[in-house]
């Protein structure tokens, strides 16, 4: 039986047990190993808050008086698991009518049945949970397919790239390394042969892409992570410094629970404000996120980044003169 069936069976056994049930009997009832029994018991106790008591020698049962009151929640997927299934369902739905629609139909049905089983209903109520795309940009599907093919086939790519910051078009030849879905948009991490450096490209700015009959140069994952994963956001690189941002006591309640970077450092100040430190390479995305908080955020260090923020705020204010 799968994990969902095991957890339900385990709950039923413990709920009806007058005396502790041995691990050996649980193995027989669940048809699994001793280690799996312990993992399921831990999940039942720690994740689902079941009143499990006992040990490996005496056996396990629900606490007396609690066994009648406790019931499994209707949905016990974690937030990350639920989002993964819903995001998959959403992406599959967007393939409707394409060449893959019939091939992916069984997968979509499986996802829907998993969601329905978790909710304890015969059909998943799609209208009750929504996944809303946020500021996704229009994508040229032909370019995306070419880029993805180059990544998977390990072949070089040649394309026109229109930089969003300058609107300048340049011809690039790159060795694609990986594609990343970030904030509802796709990006290509690649070795740029003209610049002889790693670069990230927004796929929606790629045009006239074609796969070149040359093998791609493979860059070690450690170098990719160091160059493109160490700094802030998708426009990352080798960190040039750390930014220190102080948020008002009002904004602190939100920022303290947010994930900005894997190496971020945060602490509450004595007056209730929140200090956040993050590494960054290119400042523009960091500035966009900080300015999102308006008067509730202040860049303290470094001075150059603080001056950039002041300049952007002054330009924004000039629009209202």
From TrEMBL:
Residues 241-314 form the WCX domain. Residues 6-61 form the Helix-turn-helix type domain. Coiled coil: none annotated. Pfam families: HTH_11, WCX, WYL. Residues 144-211 form the WYL domain. This is YafY family transcriptional regulator.
């Amino acid at each position: 039986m799968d994990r969902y069936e095991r957890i339900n069976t385990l709950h039923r056994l413990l709920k009806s047990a007058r005396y502790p049930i041995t691990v050996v009997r649980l193995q027989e009832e669940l048809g699994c190993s001793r280690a799996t029994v312990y993992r399921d018991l831990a999940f039942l106790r720690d994740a689902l808050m079941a009143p499990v008591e006992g040990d490996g020698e005496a056996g396990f049962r629900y606490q007396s008086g609690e066994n009648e009151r406790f019931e499994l929640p209707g949905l016990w997927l974690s937030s990350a698991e639920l989002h993964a299934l819903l995001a998959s369902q959403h992406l599959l739905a967007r393939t409707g009518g394409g060449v893959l629609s019939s091939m992916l139909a069984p997968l979509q049905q499986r996802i829907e049945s998993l969601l329905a089983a978790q909710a304890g209903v015969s059909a998943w109520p799609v209208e009750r949970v929504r996944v809303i795309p946020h500021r996704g940009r229009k994508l040229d599907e032909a370019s995306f397919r070419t880029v993805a093919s180059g990544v998977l086939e390990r072949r070089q790519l040649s394309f026109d790239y229109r930089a969003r910051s300058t609107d300048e078009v340049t011809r690039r030849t790159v060795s694609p390394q990986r594609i990343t879905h970030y904030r509802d948009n796709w990006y290509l991490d690649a070795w740029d042969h003209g610049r002889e450096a790693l670069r990230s490209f927004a796929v929606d700015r790629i045009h006239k892409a074609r796969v070149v009959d040359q093998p791609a140069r493979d860059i070690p994952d450690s170098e990719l992570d160091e160059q493109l994963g160490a700094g802030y956001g998708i426009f990352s690189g080798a960190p040039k410094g750390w930014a220190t941002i102080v948020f008002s006591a009002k904004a602190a309640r939100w920022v303290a629970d947010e994930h900005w970077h894997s190496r971020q450092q945060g602490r509450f100040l004595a007056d209730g404000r929140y200090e956040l430190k993050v590494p960054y390479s290119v400042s523009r995305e960091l500035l966009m996120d900080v300015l999102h908080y308006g008067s509730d955020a202040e860049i303290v260090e470094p001075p150059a980044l603080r001056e950039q923020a002041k300049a952007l705020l002054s330009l924004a204010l000039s629009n209202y003169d």
